[in-house]
Amino acid sequence: MREDETAAPAVLMVCDYSLRYLGGAQTAFLRQAEALADEGVRVVVLAPDADALALRRADDEMAGAVQHPLVTIAPPRRGTIPVLDLPLLGRAGDLAPLVAATIRRHEIGAVVVHSEFALAAAAIAVARRLGIPSLHTVHTFFWRAPAVLAPFAPLVSRVHGALTGIRGGDRFTGSHPLNNALRTMTLRIAQRADIVLSPSRHQAEALRAAGAGRVEAFSNVAQPLRVAAAPEGGPLRLLWVARFAPEKRLEVALDAMRLVVERLGPDRVHLDVAGGTHRPVEAVTFHGPVPGERVGELMDAADAALITSLGFDNQPMVALEAFAHGRPVIVSDPVLATEFEEAAIGTTTPDAEGLADQIVRLEADRALLAPHREGAVAYARERQPAAHVARLRELIASV
């Protein structure tokens, strides 16, 4: 770290989600915090179970990696909201003194939030009162819940209003009542930040259309490049990695594999699934819960990764991981196919039949993967930590 950087204002990074559970939002959050620290920016992390980040960096240091210091602060936890598995930290008004004290003590010059609940609302409100920039990273504006749960929409709105202190403002109205309530939650936090950051262009457009204000398309941080040689010989190997949630549509991948086996037999294509419990699906291996390094090994052994969600994902972190390893993604969602350009291979239809057709085509001619591998590396190279931090600094300075 240069001497002039030690005196520069720090960045406060805020998240309502537990950092012990590594979903997509937490992974993006942690990578951004580490990228900032490693580029010489003073970073303070305020989030439930923030010590998980300190432990993670201590492990990296023991493994020989050079680590730059960052400060971690965990607000007192009062419980967990059922179903959402969301830490209950109290109301935004109760959290504001902690945020204000943190900003003053650590000479914070900008606040970056990665969630839509009480702690994020408190951080944005305090930043505005103290006259420092606030940026809100939206990980999904495409909240989706079963329509049968629509009667719970008023409850969701009341709970969010009680936690954040935000009880009025614009409403999203483009879906069924519960989806509308969930997306309104994100919209109302976004409208209070100076800049809204969307990791994808298509989500940025949706946020602008909803009235979010200044929205910038700004990618998450890609892993450092670890490009492995393409597999040689053997079956075409595919990898599925995601949360085991209905919107990720694992069943589409499994149904596609059943169709592929019917057409080609069980030995020409193989699918590895990271996570989950074993099911008797021919040519599919369920690996159960796996650590990050094991996901990297599976990625290196694969020809491509599968992303089978439809109309839900913004910028899946598994895509960035695949690209950093030089692996393209096969996507069911035509919007993601456009978002990732040459790094993605779209299916003709978003169902299992369309995915199976694409898999059979690639198995017959693996040379078709080559330009998409090049596209994957190019996509990851443009989103490396140094470039990400430089652009974030520009955005903060622009407020």
Automatic annotation (TrEMBL):
Pfam families membership: Glyco_trans_1_4 (PF13692), Glyco_transf_4 (PF13439)
CDD domains per the UniProt record, alphabetical: GT4_PimA-like (cd03801)
Superkingdom to which the source organism belongs: Bacteria
Keyword Transferase: yes
Signal sequence, renumbered to the chain: none
Gene Ontology MF terms: glycosyltransferase activity
Domain Glycosyltransferase subfamily 4-like N-terminal: 23-216
SUPFAM superfamilies, A to Z: UDP-Glycosyltransferase/glycogen phosphorylase (SSF53756)
UniProt keyword annotations, A-Z: Glycosyltransferase, Transferase
Name under which the protein is recorded: D-inositol 3-phosphate glycosyltransferase
